[in-house]
Amino acid sequence: MASMSYHISNLLEKMTSTDKDFRFMATNDLMAELQKDSIKLDEDSENKVVTMLLKLLEDKNGEVQNLAVKCLGPLVGKVKEYQVETIVDTLCTNMLSDKEQLRDSSSMGLKTVIAELPPASTGSALTANVCKKITAQLTGAISKQEDVSVQLEALDILSDMLSRLGSTLISFHSPILSCLLPQLTSPRLAVRKRAIIALSHLVPSCSAAIFTELMKHLLTELSRNESTSTTRTYIQCLAAISRQAGHRVGEHLEKIIPVLVKFCNVEDDELREYCFQAFESFVRRFMATNDLMAELQKDSIKLDEDSENKVVTMLLKLLEDKNGEVQNLAVKCLGPLVGKVKEYQVETIVDTLCTNMLSDKEQLRDSSSMGLKTVIAELPPASTGSALTANVCKKITAQLTGAISKQEDVSVQLEALDILSDMLSRLGSTLISFHSPILSCLLPQLTSPRLAVRKRAIIALSHLVPSCSAAIFTELMKHLLTELSRNESTSTTRTYIQCLAAISRQAGHRVGEHLEKIIPVLVKFCNVEDDELREYCFQAFESFVRRCPKEMSPHIPTVIGLCLKYITYDPNYNYDNDEEDDDNAMDTESGDEEDEETGDEYSDDDDMSWKVRRSSVKCLEAVMSTRHDMLQDFYKTVSPALIARFKEREENVKADIFLAYMALLKQTRPMQGWLQSSDIMGKEDSSLTMLKGQVPNVVKALHKQLKEKSIKSRQGCLCLLTELANVLPGALADHIPALIPGIVYSLTDKSSSSNMKIDSLSFLTVILCNHPPETLHPHIKVILPPVVACIGDPFYKITSEALLVTQQLVKVIRPLEKPSSFDSKPYVKDLFSSTLKRLKAADIDQEVKERAISCMGPFYGSQKSVGSTIMHRQSYYSVAKCVAALSSTCPKEAINMVIDFIQDVKNTKSSDSVRILAFLCLAEVGRTMNLCGQKELKKVILEAFSSPNEEVKSAASYALGNICVGNLNEYLPFMLNEIGSQPKRQYLLLHSLKEVISSSSAEALKPYVEDIWTLLFKHCECSEEGTRNVVAECLGKLTLVNPAQLLPRLKKQLTSGSPYTRSTVVTAIKFTITDQLLPIDALLKGCIGDFLKTLQDPDLNVRRVALVMFNSAAHNKPSLIRDHLDSVLPHLYNETKIRKDLIREVEMGPFRHTVDDGLDVRKAAFECMYTLLDSCLDRLDIFEYLNHVEDGLKDHYDIRMLTFIMLARLSAMCPNAVMQRLDRLVEPLRATCTTKVKAGSVKQEFEKQDELKRSAMRAVAALLTIAEAQKSSVMSDFTSQIRANSEMASIFESIQKDTISSTADTETMDTS
């Protein structure tokens, strides 16, 4: 903190300099500091910074003023609330000043502060207080101020506030409206326009009463029609309101439209124009542009000539729209439009955009520039040889080069250079004929007085070189070398060197032949006393090394020599004290703070030498990464130099030094074969032998830094040491006592970040894996507590890494490979219990679970304990399939095996598990093998049907069905006879029959179809619904055997007088509908309407199963029902209504219980509605649909849970429709969230209500993803109510976090 205060004081002192450049640079540096997340100002620094920035708003230099304004933005989040209020008070006072420049800068300052305030949705007290202060001042300035310029600025700021923070200002909406309405009759047109804009930003968040008052005022004034001028203004105001909140205007259109129609007949062209603009706004608004975007993205769309003209004209017009969102969408529409219209239309678009780029309207310039970039991105690539691309490029290039060369407005130049860069990047080869004029246009920009122009010119040139001819490239290189040799100005020399580096990065292969001339020039400039120039030289060297490795070979020694010289270049700092410290013993406990203070003492804000050191280190890294052949040379010269520089005082440079050394280690890794290869081991000069000799120096240079306060430095040390331990396993064995304290410090230090702890644990894992256990035994006592603490860390990645360490720790404390005298007992309990706790946690992350399971392995291995396991039931099926495969391969042995399985079933001593497995094996074997020789098999299976164990009965049923598949002639008649004669076994026998129908071929079943059909219809009348469902499934699957014959017979049964039969038939149809293409599909499409008529059946249960069938069709094959929706939907919606005649009371002892017999039908209807959202949204009247969703939000628990999910999906799929019903939808959500369970209710009631609240809040979170919903006063009130209640606020906050992390994952479910 002291260091930061000192740094800030330095900057503030420079801001008082008489030199404007000093003031500018200091303010710029302050801006950079304020933008850092880590900055924390003490109270004194806050006061000084605020005072200085407010003072700089009056600076005589415009650029300093602008920077001071920009600084206010990040400052808002860094100072206390009262400081922000001080800033706002001063800016408001300045706005009324008679100094125009101060007024302007203060207005910009207020806009900047408003833009940085926490959004309204956070309920921030700061936002509320600041808005309160500003609003009172602004409304006063607007109402009473005689100076029009002050009025205009005040209106602009008020518009900004309403746009961002409208809902925070709800208590001020009435006075704001009272202040704005008189401005609509101002004699100044500019004031009227600003008032319209402010009103348009007021309406999205104002209350219904305020909105009605505004509309009433506008309609009253329009009916008076006292002045044509004010009438025009009121009509413009209506159009603007519609653009911002069209969903609210709808209910007033019945009164508005006749008035506008009347004014269309008045002989005033301007008035007519505004009427038509209002009509357009009511019809189109934002959604129209959005819909157009969706249409243009469809491959099938084809526009006729008239439509092309209209679309192009309208989109180009919308680029000037006052609504920023509409502008942005219009720009996006230009992309897909390029491929949908004729070539001359694209040229029209390009001509208009190029013309607009030179406009004096900044917003139009910006949108047109974006439009040009969009069009360029969509043009066919150069490789296609498209004439359209060539013609459009020709038009754009001529305009751009003209704008770059002649334009005095720098912002236009910059945009033109950006667009030219985009074109050259994508379509450079198409522009070959223009390369020469482009080069001629760009070269002069390298000497522009504006640095931004020079940088953009460098980027454009770098995109030109990959596709330009050899002559053009030579001309460019010749120009750069000539200008460098002249060296007329250090500033331009820097630019030319930057240009060389950029060209090399884009087309290094072409630079190679010129390096003989370039390198000597750059070497010469490295000796010039200009740090920035040296930095650019090293950046160029780095680029040449990576992009021209072959041509750079002769120059590598020179480059290495320069790099080694300048990585120690630090003229403002004395390292002697550090060297004395390095000579001391490796004591990790002292000296850290002293070292840091020494570094701060010598820091100099104007010192640029660190940039030279950093660029030279990066250049060295490039050399080491690309020259594996010089590895031994690197260990002789570069490695010692880098180790010596580990003491670097500048944190960013030190990080790059670590990265450079890691690059050297990574290059060394592939040569690890020496560890096993005796012939190479004999080479004393091998790189790994040299590295091994340097390890003590590496540890000596790093071990102290492991306890520095700088997290970045510590992380760098750990990553380097991890790489070293991987390259040389065991090399750190002698140094573990020096390293362990640093690891423990990083794991226990409260300031350590999550990444810091993860890196420390990773390093610890590598040490434990790569070093002998005995070297680590003395340190287990110190290592264990922080590792155990990390296992319990709430962040799953830390826990996961700690479990990995634990896994290795167990192997270290109880090595299995060889006997150990180390006593592990004091440590095992802590490790085991902490790991077991994680394993038992219900909400455990999958990665943590897997690591915890892996961790238990070594525990059990080390304790020599063996646990018994019980085979999972699902694995029985897999075993049975394996047995069947073996029996088909070895048929002779199979008979004895079958006999054994039958004996297992008969044996009364066999466990249920053995009997289940035996039946499953008999099933799988019997499916492919005829078991007619086993005479007692039928009896054994039928006896098992009486078993008390349900799983045994189910396995026996499954076995009978599958054995029957293998021998239909014998077993199917037997089965059908049993079904008819044994009512107690009927259910299980029907399941066996279902297996037969499902698994047998159609051809094999044909002889038995009639018998099965007749039998099944006899059992349709069974009173047990479970049995009827199995019958229905059998009927459905049997129909698939011969659909042409059996489907009409099913349809005929719809006229049965029995509700049971009708419901069974409808359910059977459900089983004929799958997501696969089947022969029955065409037949079903022709008669599905008859089955859907059962939605009108007088029987409640028939209607329910009809809804289930409809849902299955909508989910699996929507094409079956799409054409019937017009007739089906009224009946579907009718089933969503609560029917009082189906609600009855049942007496249960002293209590009365309400039973709703219609609940299941309603639930089925809502599930159908949910499915239709996915498959048939385009066929739904969404407003009618929303009526029933609204009713569902007030229904039973199950239905409310479903409609909450539906509402969340609708928010994403139909936001505009949802917005129009928002007020009505919010109320049932509010009711759910605020309902309290009666005291004394059972636990389940509390749990159900809690889950309802959560689901309702998920729906609220989904609604808030609609941009306009955030501005709604009803929604704002509701969210404020949620945040005011601590319990609801906590739930809502966690839901919002989940929503952000899985935005694409809207809740879905399968209701088929």
UniProtKB/TrEMBL annotation:
Keywords: Repeat, Ubl conjugation pathway. GO terms for biological process: SCF complex assembly. Signal peptide: none annotated. Residues 577-607 are annotated as: Disordered. It comes from the Eukaryota. Residues 1120-1282 form the TATA-binding protein interacting (TIP20) domain. Belongs to the CAND family. This is Cullin-associated NEDD8-dissociated protein 1. It comes from Acipenser ruthenus (Sterlet sturgeon).
